[in-house]
Each structure stands twice: as C-alpha cells, then as structure tokens.
Amino acid sequence: MPPDISHIYNFYRLDDRVACAGQPQADDFARIKEAGYEVVFNLAPADSSHALHDEQAVVAGQGLAYVHIPVIWDAPQRRDFALFCQAMQAHDGRNLFIHCIANMRVSAFLYLYQRTQGVPEKTARQVLDAIWQPNPTWQAFINHVLAEV
C-alpha cells in the first residue's frame, strides 16, 4: 500500500495521475516517490517564504524529475502558464506531484489547464474551489487566460 501523503498542506488528488499540494518538507519527497509520483513540479519562486532550500537537489536525490516554474504571487504571467502547459504535455502519462507554497498558484493553473483541455467548468473548478477563492489579482489572471481559450 502506498504511503499516505495527505498530510502535506492543502493536499488534493486531482486524479489517479496528478496530485497537488502546498510546500512539502524535505522528508516528504521519499513518500511522494513511494506513492508513485515520478515528476515534481514546483511553481513557487525559490526565495518564497517556506520554500525548501535546495529543493531540486532533494527531489533529484529521490530519483524524481523536477520542473521549476517560478510564478510570482502578485504577478502571474501568461508565459508562466504557457510553460506549465508545455511541461504538462511533456510529461503526459507520467504521475505528477505539483506544488507551490499553499497550493493556490497550482490549483489556479490546474483549473486553467483543464479548461484548455476541454474539461467542463464544473469539473475543472473543483480543484480551485477545494483550495481557495482567487483574490482580485488571480481572478483577473484567470479571466485573461480564459478569454483566450
């Protein structure tokens, strides 16, 4: 039986292949690997409060692939989301553990990604609603991206 990783802050299992959460602790990455995840995405800048120092090395030490897309909290950019979509497509079919500091950036990006893939609003919105209601900056970003879909 795989280890339980639901203790990680704001953990949410999107489906059998993708889970998201806030910042894991260094020792959580061994359990993330044991739970079957192959790739770790980190959307938080390395200098964020509560960021794990040398996360890339910690993740690599577990034999996991690492994708770092630092999204500035107060200024999410369309290019950040484009990089996220490219990474999602590049790792299609692999088990992904996606995190930031509090799972707010990630839940917004996963919501938007699902919408760009044709997932119905009600279904795609579940991950976002489970974590937070976007603040004005993030709602404007979400609206901007959805206007292009």
What is the ordering of alpha helices and beta strands?
Answer: EEHEHEHEHHH
Determine the N-to-C terminus distance: 40 Å
How do the strands of the widest beta sheet line up side by side? 1-2-5-3-4
Class from helix and strand fractions: alpha/beta
* Count of alpha and pi helical runs: 6
Give me the Rg, rounded: 14 Å
**β-strand amount:** 5-15%
**How much helical structure, as a percent, in the residues?**
40-55%
Mean pLDDT figure: 97
User: Biggest sheet, in brief?
Assistant: 5 strands, mixed
Number of E-type strands: 5
The global form is: globular
| Poorly predicted regions | none
Q: Overview of this structure, please?
A:
With 149 residues, the chain is of the alpha/beta class. 43% of the residues lie in helices and 12% in strands. The chain has six helices and five strands; from the N terminus they run ββαβαβαβααα. The protein has helices spanning 28-34, 55-61, 78-90, 104-116, 121-131, 136-148, and strands spanning 12-13, 18-21, 39-42, 65-68, 96-99. A five-stranded mixed β-sheet has the order 1-2-5-3-4, sandwiched between helices. Helix 4 (104-116) runs antiparallel to helix 5 (121-131) and helix 4 runs parallel beside helix 6.
Can you tag this structure with a few keywords?
149 residues, alpha/beta, 5-stranded mixed sheet, 6 helices, 43% helix, 12% strand, globular
How would you summarize the topology of this molecule?
Elements: E1 12-13, E2 18-21, H1 28-34, E3 39-42, H2 55-61, E4 65-68, H3 78-90, E5 96-99, H4 104-116, H5 121-131, H6 136-148
Parallel strand pairs: 2-5, 3-4, 3-5
Antiparallel strand pairs: 1-2
